[in-house]
Design a protein that fits this description.
Residues 24-391 form the Aminotransferase class V domain. With 403 residues, this protein is α/β, with parallel strands linked by helices. It has 2 domains: 4-30 and 295-402, Aspartate Aminotransferase, domain 1; 39-293, Type I PLP-dependent aspartate aminotransferase-like (Major domain) (Aspartate Aminotransferase, domain 2). The protein is built from 14 helices and 17 strands. α3 (59-79) packs across α10, α11 runs parallel beside α14 and α12 (341-350) crosses α14. The chain binds pyridoxal-5'-phosphate.
């Protein structure tokens, strides 16, 4: 049995009430909650060894540098990267994607093609549009099916020797559907294109193996994996990170500077200009360690039980429709009849239930279904079936008010 009660005790926030009701937190796809070990790691940093890294000979600076580099190694092991210096600390997924997009600005030529999927988060659409505008490259879109899957035959037809880059999320944040990224990567490589996978939504549920995937770039945010906000990851294969120009100029990313010429530092420092989020990086490592202690197989199995239970219970409600119905993680995106998702979300909050309503930064998906948005309940490994019962009862109450 999955020790959910023991796990819940690790998360102090789960004890609080909202509007006089026990908090039911089902907005995990927007950000996850933080276990005490991660909070303790943050406090420990500021209480005991707060210092700038890599620069000082003094003890505090060395301690901070060691912990920060240990966190990088933890990330390397978690994602099974070949080298620790292929793990670049960023401020989050959006930052990571922009770094790659900006780097490709000097590698793409007019007429090159960039392929993105129809299931992307806005942070995975806008940087590529900007890149294409700047370089004259052409943006192509892999269309989606009604069940939330991608049209893989069309993808095959879009690929050609003109394809320079392919971008796709591992798991859609709006629908929770899992994309066939291995197939997407292999097919792109057959035409010599590079692939960036947005793992922001996948990493809370599965442990990606970047070498087995043979992916060129993989990005994630700590705050969706029990870590703090403001820190994330850019994994890049060494050969690609060496090919890309630096993103920002500043301290830490240079080897020598004169007014005539600057030579850049090696990896990972080339991409880590300025003082990074030191505490955040260390806490990111603590969060990854915490989740690995529980085990991603156990997490996935338990979350699947929650998904099946929640799906069955919600579908008992008349007029309830779920979007994204194939091969999913524990995210349920739904509407009830014509009731506006915002109206239901507001009532749910009054009853202590936190869900996300709206377009989930994925407006093209909402346009595809011709809906203004959805109600998205996203479950984490610290949620319970009892909480799902509370959600279902609350949705019923809300619907009764509006229908
Ligand atoms: C959350 C999310 C992002 C953006 O992550 P930030 O941490 O806000 O930068 C990008 N893509 C997907 C799939 C996401 O779920």
């Amino acid at each position: 049995m999955f020790p959910v009660e023991k796990i819940r005790a690790d998360f102090p926030i789960l004890q609080r009430t909202v509007n006089g009701k026990p908090l039911v937190y089902f907005d995990n796809a927007a950000t996850s909650q933080t276990p005490q070990v991660v909070i303790d790691t943050i406090v420990d940093y500021y209480q005991n060894y707060n210092a700038n890294i890599h620069r000082g000979v003094h003890t505090l600076s060395q301690e901070a540098t060691d912990k920060y580099e240990q966190a990088r190694i933890l990330l390397q092991q978690h994602f099974n990267a070949e080298h620790a210096y292929e793990m670049i600390f960023t401020s989050g997924t959006t930052h990571s994607i922009n770094m790659v997009a900006s780097g490709f600005g000097s590698l793409l030529n007019k007429g090159d093609e960039v392929i993105v999927s129809a299931l992307e988060h806005h942070s995975n659409i806008v940087p590529w549009q900007m890149l294409c505008e700047k370089t004259g490259a052409v943006l192509k879109v892999i269309p989606m099916n009604l069940d939330g899957s991608l049209q893989m035959d069309t993808y095959q037809n879009l690929l050609s020797e003109k394809t320079a880059l392919v971008f796709c999320n591992h798991i859609s944040n709006a629908l929770g559907t899992i994309n066939p990224i291995k197939e997407i990567i292999d097919k792109a490589h057959q035409v010599g294109a590079a692939v960036l996978i947005d793992g922001a939504q996948a990493c809370p549920h599965i442990k990606p193996d970047v070498q087995a995937l043979d992916v060129d770039f993989y990005v994630a945010s700590a705050h969706k994996i029990c870590g703090p906000t403001g820190v994330g990851l850019l994994y890049g294969k060494q050969e690609w990170l060496e090919k890309l120009p630096p993103y920002q100029g500043g301290g830490e990313m240079i080897e020598t500077v004169t007014f005539e010429k600057t030579t850049y530092a090696g990896l990972p420092h080339k991409f880590e200009a300025g003082t990074p989020n030191i505490c955040g990086g260390i806490a990111f490592g603590a969060a990854i360690a915490y989740m690995n202690n529980i085990g991603f197989d156990a997490i996935a199995k338990y979350e699947n039980e929650l998904l099946d239970y929640g799906t069955a219970k919600l579908l008992e409600i008349d007029g309830l429709q779920i979007y994204g119905t194939t091969n999913k993680t524990s995210v349920i995106s739904f509407n009830v009849d014509e009731v506006h998702p915002y109206d239901i979300g507001t009532i749910l909050d009054k009853l202590g239930v936190a869900v996300r309503t709206g377009h989930h930064c994925a407006q093209p998906i909402m346009d595809f279904y011709q809906i203004p948005g959805t109600i998205r309940a996203s479950f984490a490994f610290y949620n319970t079936k009892e909480e799902i019962d509370i959600l279902v009862a609350a949705v019923k109450r809300a619907v009764a008010m509006f229908v």
